[in-house]
Amino acid sequence: MLCTRLTNARVLTMDPHRPIARDLGIWRGRIVGLDEAVTALPAREVVDLDGATVLPGFIDSHVHLTWAGLKARTPSIAPCERIEDILAVVDAAARRPAPPGAWLDVAGYDQRALGRHLTAAELDRVSHGRKILLMHDSGHACVVNTAVLELLPDGVEHEEGFLAESAMTAARRLRLPYSQEELADAIGHAARACLAEGITACAEAGIGGGLLGHSPVELGAYQLLRDRGGLPVRVQLMAAGDTLRPRAAHPDDGFTRALDLGLRTGFGDDRLSLGALKIYTDGGMMARTAALTSPYEGTDGNTGRFQDDPGRIARLIVDGHLAGWQLAVHAIGDRAADLALDALEQAQKLKPRPEARHRIEHAGLIRPDQLPRFAALGVSAVVQPNFLRYFGDDYATVMGERRAGWMYRGRGFLDHGVTLVGSSDRPVTDGSPLRAIQFMVERASVSGRIIGGEEAIGVDEALRAYTVAGAHACHWDGTAGSLSPGKRADLVVLGDDPHRVDPSRIGDIEIVTTYVDGRDTRDA
């Protein structure tokens, strides 16, 4: 007997061998068959979907759940476009009861509307004895007051309180760690938001260290939530590259750095597992720190920056590969992509691992000559289409006409045989897969500006980026990504078929419900 049979549905399986079905049978959290294989079988529950569209649950292959959950509960200056308005928000938050010298985190900082960065001196006027940290929306910079500057180690560079990349990391390390209870609460909040958007699995892009880790024992917060039954989506955790340490190992093992006990990609279960090793090369376009080969337009020769000495970054990439990790290399600018591709090529020559499925996260600006290199190395491009949907007007301006079409590519990757993977980088921008899919098809920003129109792809190709390709990038393709017999019954029910509506309406399609392990999450 089936546990559940979904019937009267338009099931888009994403499986080329059986692309469309009407009925889908579920037993103990797995898909057991489609149409004639299950129609006549008895079931404890039969759900008539009245013609609704069913797709595999969306996979968001690059998120920051902890940051998203914490940000949702943090005072925000995001609506403010004037310095005096920002300072008023900080002033009000700093006046709230708190121990002397306590930290005040403020979210939503973005200098672009202001025309310049805030300064420590300005924050000092409204600090009221608190340590203030305004987190840049990109996650690559912050502004702090003098009370924080005085605590920074010698040699940390800043511009009147503005700190970017490694300097920001130094400031955040003064603030950390959060408690596991705080983190578990934040993770649960963000995961439920994912579920409401049809996401059934995601990859947390960096825990334990790096730019956006929140505790050296951050994995424990995920375990705490999972053990309590409070983790509603499947999560794969990327360990930050700086969590690797020199380890004595047998010479035949071929590696010199590892996590304690030699843990690496693949450890865990189908609800919570260890994924790729996250390695940063550069910054971000929003903060103007992504590493470019040619300067940002309108700047005095600014070409961004690397997170560390390029040689040390390359050695970490090679060492991670030799230690058996899948690598997720953050590279937004084309100069950063050169560094990543060179290091990955060197690593594969030293120890060929064609099955590694290394990934380049963001791939925000990729020159035409770099596309064949992605393909030759078998590297996936994990892009964030909503970056251009929401920030594309600004990005296109600072890249200039010649480079605007190279940003967050679609067609270019696919035509070169590169696996194109969709993701959000939540909470940097909107996490909705459907709105991202709409952008991939239209290539239109919210203002209507077409950005790299030649990079537009078809609806089915965009859906694959959030299902089949996401599963491939996370080594889940044996159990997720398509609605095929034997795979997990993780699926999303939509109010309409993205193929059948005008592309401009894809982002507004209703998420009717989401199933995880064959259970309707509305009943949870």
Automatic annotation (TrEMBL):
What the entry lists under Gene3D superfamilies is as follows: 3.10.310.70, Metal-dependent hydrolases (3.20.20.140), Urease, subunit C, domain 1 (2.30.40.10)
Ranges for the Amidohydrolase domain? 45-519
Which superkingdom is the protein from? Bacteria
Which CDD domains does its entry note?
Answer: YtcJ_like
Read off the InterPro entries from this record: Amidohydro_3 (IPR013108), Metal-dep_hydrolase_composite (IPR011059), Metal_Hydrolase (IPR032466), YtcJ-like (IPR033932)
Q: Which Pfam families match?
A: Amidohydro_3
Supply the SUPFAM superfamilies for this chain. Composite domain of metallo-dependent hydrolases, Metallo-dependent hydrolases
PANTHER family per the UniProt record, alphabetical = IMIDAZOLONEPROPIONASE, PROTEIN LONG AFTER FAR-RED 3
Protein name, per record: Amidohydrolase
Q: Which organism is it from?
A: Kitasatospora albolonga
